[in-house]
């Protein structure tokens, strides 16, 4: 009865649970690992991504739920469920996902290893010579790094690190003739790598590090009886919502550094353990961490599938199934040899990554660093590549005496330490560095280069949806604009003054920003479509985003649907709106595109009675985007570029190879091309469309 009651409550709600919607998204990623049309290495890549996604989900979303449970705070999910019944529903669904994840890995992927040039083996499956190599590796490299940490009456419970593989070794001693069990913990250092590699003539053998340690664990327990050796891994609560901090007087950088330390000590929200663990150890761990069976995930294979990246990225397999990075220039940029400073004086450029290379943006920045006419550079940075060319260019610009001001967002999740480090490098070089704005997370992506050209100063502006990261620009789909248009330049200058100072402009002409006005302005655009529909005028909305969660905007979509507005939503991940519900959202459709590239672009189209308004930028339709983040959407005013953006949406709507259609109950079905239907794969078609002239198309 309780199960039926919970299910009925979820069905009655006019919203979909954010967290359950996210788990369904990870199923769509898992679907890529099941796709037999992909190479094994692509499938392993997606399997590793599902594992990484799930780690972050437990740290942040399950961690957030436990912030309510542990401190007795009330919380009602979008599904209408309170904390405890929702916890049960969520963890039950997570168990189901993990079971399906490992069924895929064990039954569909592992059988393909041997004929693909590699295998994952235990030490006992190696040749005698190979076992000697393993012995030497353990003796010289692994053994010196291992530190047994006993827990007993004389030793406190050790701090076990988040997401490290750990052995819980139960030993037995006799004190005064009475046998006594105790647990010693041995954590595997993360800098050892996931596998020990052995080259054979016909293949590469990957030996899990834990299997080597398991075989040699007795060397850490001389003259002690070992009762059981149990491998496990914990995930701790990593949710701390710094952007909601009201302590404006605190040293913000030091606050970030201290919060990073708490991530290592956060409460345990998940315990992954191999089959048949010691019941003595399990009782101890459950009691110590205040968890129960719902938090325990028994793994019948390799714990932590993120380790598969070592195989996917191996030098011998790099060319197996991976598309080379694009060097294609957009239609609006005629060649890659053009002088960008001269070209941008008369032309705007819309870039669609990865189908268009990010090279024009990075090269422009690098040239600006050396150009004697450039006076200054302003930039927001959220995530950077390793050995970033962007950082190198900014350092060079500072060395050359240019004014460089950079806002580093040190709350970029899991990149906090990197951004602090890079920011400190720039500070030492003489750059003006701001480490975020205490109450808000700066998520917008923009850059401005100020150049003196004779008696005139020209401002070169770049603004988009993607990070200034040359590596992810090859894997994420994003849109961005390069322009010297004075209206954009004025808006962006004003925006930089807002985020670096105390300026409060009344309005922007081409920008829509948060946290101040974005929600209200988007709602007004939706309402305008509803008004037009009620007047019998043509109307329509097409939006492509990562996540849709804000209730106020969702309610406006429902009202627009009732007014007769066709609403087509392309939402990669979380979607809390119910499409196609009778008398609520009959005119709303939702699709998700998941495939070779991570769909990261945000585009907003409003029909506006035949005079379309199209925006691109950094913001999703989420509470955090509107209330707790600094975001910007830019209006695409150039007619040809607007047509390019509309074409992007058009082909996303046509896609029938990477698309999943969302149903009213929140589930998804894979879209397939019909028997007489043209195959449309957006992750392939845009390579052919990148240089072609955009066509005039109808979206609604």
From TrEMBL:
Cofactor(s) recorded for this entry are: Mg(2+)
- MF terms in GO: ATP binding; metal ion binding; polyphosphate kinase activity
A Pfam cross-reference name? PP_kinase
Q: Which SUPFAM superfamilies match?
A: Phospholipase D/nuclease, PHP14-like, PPK N-terminal domain-like
Domain (Polyphosphate kinase middle): residue spans on this chain: 130-311
Q: Which residues form the Polyphosphate kinase C-terminal domain?
A: 339-504, 511-677
Q: The Polyphosphate kinase N-terminal domain covers which part of the protein? A: 15-120
As for PTM, the annotation reads: An intermediate of this reaction is the autophosphorylated ppk in which a phosphate is covalently linked to a histidine residue through a N-P bond.
Q: Which reaction does it catalyse?
A: [phosphate](n) + ATP = [phosphate](n+1) + ADP
Q: Where does ATP bind?
A: 53, 476, 572, 600
Q: What is its EC number?
A: 2.7.4.1
Task: List this protein's GO terms for biological process.
Answer: polyphosphate biosynthetic process
Annotated InterPro entries: PP_kinase, PP_kinase_C_1, PP_kinase_middle, PP_kinase_middle_dom_sf, PPK_C_dom2, PPK_N_dom, PPK_N_dom_sf
Q: Where does Mg(2+) bind?
A: 383, 413
Q: Which GO terms describe its cellular component?
A: polyphosphate kinase complex
Q: Does the entry feature the keyword Oxidoreductase, yes or no?
A: no
Name the UniProt key words of this record, in alphabetical order: ATP-binding, Kinase, Magnesium, Metal-binding, Nucleotide-binding, Phosphoprotein, Transferase
Active site per the UniProt annotation = 443
> What Gene3D superfamilies does the annotation carry?
Endonuclease Chain A (3.30.870.10), Polyphosphate kinase middle domain (3.30.1840.10), Polyphosphate kinase N-terminal domain (1.20.58.310)
PANTHER family xref list: POLYPHOSPHATE KINASE
Q: What does this protein do?
A: Catalyzes the reversible transfer of the terminal phosphate of ATP to form a long-chain polyphosphate (polyP).
Similarity remark = Belongs to the polyphosphate kinase 1 (PPK1) family.
- Provide the protein name: Polyphosphate kinase
* Gene name per UniProt: ppk
